[in-house]
Amino acid sequence: MCGIIxxxxxxxxxxxxxxxxxxxxxxxxxxxxISIINRKRIRTFKAAGKLLVLEDRLPDEIAGACGIxxxxxxxxxxxxxxxxxxxxxxxxxxxxxxxxxxxxASALRKQLENSGIICVSETDTEVLAHLLASHRGPLIDAVRxxxxxxxxxxxLAAIDKDSPGSIVIARNGSPVIIGIGDxxxxxxxxxxxxxxxTREVIHLDDGEVAExxxxxxxxxxxxxxxxxxxxxxxxxxxxxxxxxxxxHYLHREIHDxxxxxxxxxxxxxxxxxxxxxxxxxxxxxxxxxxFKRIKILGCGSAYYAGMAGANMIEELARLPVSAEPAxxxxxxxxxxxxxxxxxxxxxxxxxxxxxxxxxxxxxxxxFVLGIVNSVGSTIAREVNGGVYMHAGPEVSVxxxxxxxxxxxxxxxxxxxxxxxxxxxxxxxxxxxxALDELPQHIKDTLQLEDQIEKIAxxxxxxxxxxxxxxxxxxxxxxxxxxxxxxxxxxxxxxYPASELKHGPLALISIDTPCxxxxxxxxxxxxxxxxxxxxxxxxxxxxSITDADxxxxxxxxxxxxxxxxxxxxxxxxxxxxxxxxxAYHIALKLDRDIxxxxxxxxxxxxx
Length: 606
Ligand code: G6P
What we know:
binds 6-O-phosphono-alpha-D-glucopyranose; 8-stranded antiparallel β-sheet; 22% strand; alpha/beta
């Protein structure tokens, strides 16, 4: 999704803005641009395509110590030079960058046209530039007044050539974070763009407008009332935003997972009471016992993690749990019950639909816990309690380490709730032990990479594939198929293996490689018959299993044998093999793995 960076200080702004834009690239974008004020003049450079195209267009030196920059992910209007941000008014006095969607842009555009102002781009953002320019007086007053007329979501930054050195930012539904520097101030839509310059940040809340100068800032509401803000410290280290010697962020993050799980588990396993200790829930044991059901909400991989988590909790705590895509949930006028515990799951903590679902539940009086990675994010701040994942920043658009960390948090919650209900101390102790050993098992799983790389060639020529699994293995199949689609662009359809004969068998042939997850459990014989059904139709097969079963070898072209772990944790292990498989297939196909087409890291619009 779009990214914003803004700088005011004493240094040359252009290189700082360009560096910030590079840090925002991972979010997904299709054009970019910067505006710099110098000597009461704003110079703007923009380009469709990658940042390299913009870089080529920049003169060797652009004077000016105040400016704004943007990476755009097209929503209103094609990804062209003209539609790229920043947008200016006709006299080039105001320049503005904007994330989000202005819903009444066409009505506002008509009003502008009636007064003789013609918009040159197809974007909703340009409307803001013209409206801001129609106000005389301080830019901050113009921003407040214009935003009162705007319906929709925005994170924005604007500059005015008549107030050099000052930047006005505002937020409604799309994140903007202030970075407090030494004699300089920054703003960005994402921590990654700030980490190099400062460790001290302030999150703007919806309905707030701030003015930044090199030496300070003020935050007010749209009605010009002062807002009291306190700063927080960045939790991630600068090097966590690097590739760390790997050729892709995705590869680094897959290989980080043993360490990530270690961090997710740190201080949370309680050997004395054979349970998990989760500090931030804001719920006592007595409150937790009141809940009769759990509903998990998230989008994309977070939703699939929620499906896997639902199985874990249901199995260990014997509570009915279901997961639902956050957007579907919020639009179907859901019944919110006091006896249901709601859990929202989000890596970024900024996904628009997940945030909207959270607000809908709270509006109807429900209690919501968050499983969130990004510290201080909007969802993290708005939930009633929660568990931070501590996975570190995830840069790759395709989620891997955050997904694995989400599953680890669910295993902790399942253990904690299980031990509050009727799980025996012995089972609890076995779970604590299994979780403690999980990082080592993940390390062992990552050792399967050479074998998986060889199998990747076998799948890379396919145009359509099936991913199959039963019960606990089905969400793993969904997430594995998602990974393949996202980065290799090969069609992958996940099905519960039990549903094969109710539809997909019609498509199974020698041209459709099938991947089946067969955990060693009481359903293994059933999964074996599914494998046989596929084999009979001549489909190439890959089996992921921890079972020592000769029939699997006889029926499969390839078998990936995973380390044996506690049954609850099997989805974590098999999931990692599917991440490696998707990565190596995409590599063989020479895909742009860290910038998959049409996808954004964090979807902050509807
Ligand atoms: C986007 C990303 C997915 C991610 C989903 C939810 O679609 O491409 O990888 O799973 O958003 O993101 P969240 O930050 O809420 O976990």
